[in-house]
Amino acid sequence: MMIRGKGMALSLLAVGTAAAAGYVLRAGRTRARDGQTRADVGARIVEEKEIPDNATVVDVSSRRLQDLPAAGEAIERAVRNDARDEWEHVTLECDDAWRVVDALRASLPYHDADGTEYNGVYVHCDGRVVVLDAFGWVRLEEPIP
């Protein structure tokens, strides 16, 4: 009877240890995956002739635009640095960073380019027009099965 009790105790200990290890590994992997989610919001100044005919230009004071994290900062950087040749970027790293990308494309008049035009939302700011765009990504630590 003593041998059975020890065997049972060892079995329960092994199962409990394996379950705890699995939980810790899964929780650690989830946190790492969430922590690697990023979105990049970029803006650059465009000339009047570069604004597509069918693009809607919104004002920088638009409430929907102001509600987007990093959009105002990217626009301000583009205007301050007179960014005509390069994009001014603001990178977000948080659990829901991709929501910024979705919100930019869903809540504002996003222009899908068809050639030499820029994709994005065209914004009037301080007498200039800035194009604003965003993309998101996840850095995977392990290959997807």
> What is the topology, as strand order, of the major beta sheet?
2-4-5-1-3
Q: How many helix segments?
A: 4
Rg, please? 25 Å
Name the poorly predicted regions.
Answer: 8-25, 27-35
* CA-CA gap between termini: 46 Å
Q: Can you give the mean pLDDT?
A: 80
Describe the sheet with the most strands: 5 strands, mixed
Q: Indicate the percent of residues in helices.
A: 40-55%
| Overall spatial form | globular
Query: What is the string of SSEs from the N terminus onward?
Result: HEEHHEHEE
**Tally of strands:** 5
User: What is the SS-derived class?
Assistant: alpha+beta
- Beta content: 15-25%
Quick rundown:
The protein is α+β, with helices and mostly antiparallel strands and 145 residues long. It contains 4 helices and 5 strands; from the N terminus they run H-E-E-H-H-E-H-E-E. It has helices at 2-35, 63-66, 71-80, 98-107; strands at residues 37-46, 57-59, 88-93, 121-125, 128-138.
Describe this structure in words.
The chain has 145 residues and is α+β, with helices and mostly antiparallel strands. 40% of the residues lie in helices and 24% in strands. It has four helices and five strands. Strands 2-4-5-1-3 form a five-stranded mixed beta sheet. A hairpin with a 2-residue loop joins strand 4 and strand 5. The chain is globular, with a radius of gyration of 25 Å. The protein starts with a helix and ends in a 7-residue tail after the last strand. 22% of the residues are buried.
